[in-house]
Amino acid sequence: MARELRTRIRGTPGFEGALVHLGVGEPAVVTRADWRDQRAHQRVLVDGPEGEVLRSLPERDEVLDADSFGGAPVAGIEGPDSEREPGLAVVAKRRVGGRNNALAMADLLHRSGDWKRSFPGFVAATPFISPDWSVYVNYPRWVDENAYHAYMADERNSACQEDIARLETSEPEFVMCAPFEEIGVDASGDHEPDS
């Protein structure tokens, strides 16, 4: 995945960088790619020859499952360690069924965010909403796995779970992953995060 991004995608018009993650506790590769706009993404990954190898990944025998999500970021929250490199991330994909629920989910993140803004080891949470408003993906990050477990064990974290469940139309999907390689727009932008 990282090689394809470096050799075929980096340098294409509208590509603004990517971060490749490896699954923690499960064999998974998660890539967060940033594009100038939806047209650039469509032109390169969906329609262009540069994205052909990435589009064919689900057909490979060694790939058990493949999923893709496209969405625009909305205002997130930052923790006290927002200047540090994240060591762990979770991709939380929630089907919310429409605009009202997607916006309510984003609002809920902010309303429940006061304690998160000062929680040691919390880096940030960035939500994304699909163009059709049916999917809300949250991308929270922590400095390491210990910070993640402490955050999840905090009783304040469970306070809004019922509100979240009311906004969902099906069971959420979660992938825990660790940043592996950052792909910049040129060779000088690449680095592997500290482990």
UniProtKB/TrEMBL annotation:
SUPFAM superfamilies: Dimeric alpha+beta barrel. It comes from the Bacteria. This is ABM domain-containing protein.
